[in-house]
Fold this protein.
Amino acid sequence: MKPVLVTGASGFLGWHVARVLLERGYSVRALVRAGSKVADLDVDTVTGDLRDPDSLERAVAGCGLVFHVAADYRLWARDPRELYRSNVDGTHHLLEAARAARVERIVYTSTVGCIGIPRGGIGDEETPVNLADMAGDYKRSKFMAEGVALEYARDGLPVVIVNPTAPIGDHDVKPTPTGKIVVDFLNGAMPAFIDTGLNVVDVRDTAEGHLLACERGRVGERYILGAENLTLAQILQTLAKITGRKAPTVRLPYAVAYCAGACSTAWARISGIPPRVPLDAVRMAKKKMWVTHEKARRELGFNPGPADQALACAVEWFRRAGTQPVAAPRA
């Protein structure tokens, strides 16, 4: 059996994709940057960089399948051009290498941020959307990268696209912005919340969805990998039930959050230290990112579990990992 290349296996979602593949008996080759590693998984690693086409050619050589999960996932960068070099140019470089290596199937990991959301409604893969709808350089770079993947698919490369929503669960080392909600809640560092909404999905289900997309997805199609649409207030209430802690009750007006994001981001440009409240994150929060995974259910057999189980798993892992101080729950 030919090895399977996974980019981003040292990160949160990519690690889980690699784990699922190993459990299914695949031999996994992980593309990692110099100094990175894939913890606790029996994978072969190859050092490379999405901005280095030669390293990608070496990584893809001899592989039958490619899961391109890696991305520069930052809601603030002192030099935003770095996001485009990794996310847009890097996707082009990898798909070009995959074409030259005659790879049998590529699963490209996009994001729910590239899905159109109708005003006050639920988005799906067919909801109209364009680059002007993308808030911030991260979303714009991912939208452009998805466009690259679609172009290669139209040109005959066997690319299937998945759009994960907000994965949550174990091994969120950094953590991701969604995981940080859990960490901040556990640390009592979330005294207020804003009126926003996410679609929350278990990261393990999301990883399974990648394999389903590889096995059953149609070339050139997009598949939303999500589960439950929840307001931030509902997420915090669920965390309160899981932990026994009190959820914040103060709802922060959007204008106040925007001012905080603008000030925090302005200081980051001066200091070079990433902002506590990135302005792009505030802009994204203005819209509830609520979608349906009906297409993935219908065509792939994607059947995710409930969000509260994923949140409970994340809480348990963050506590064991020491990401937050373990304390007795409040009565």
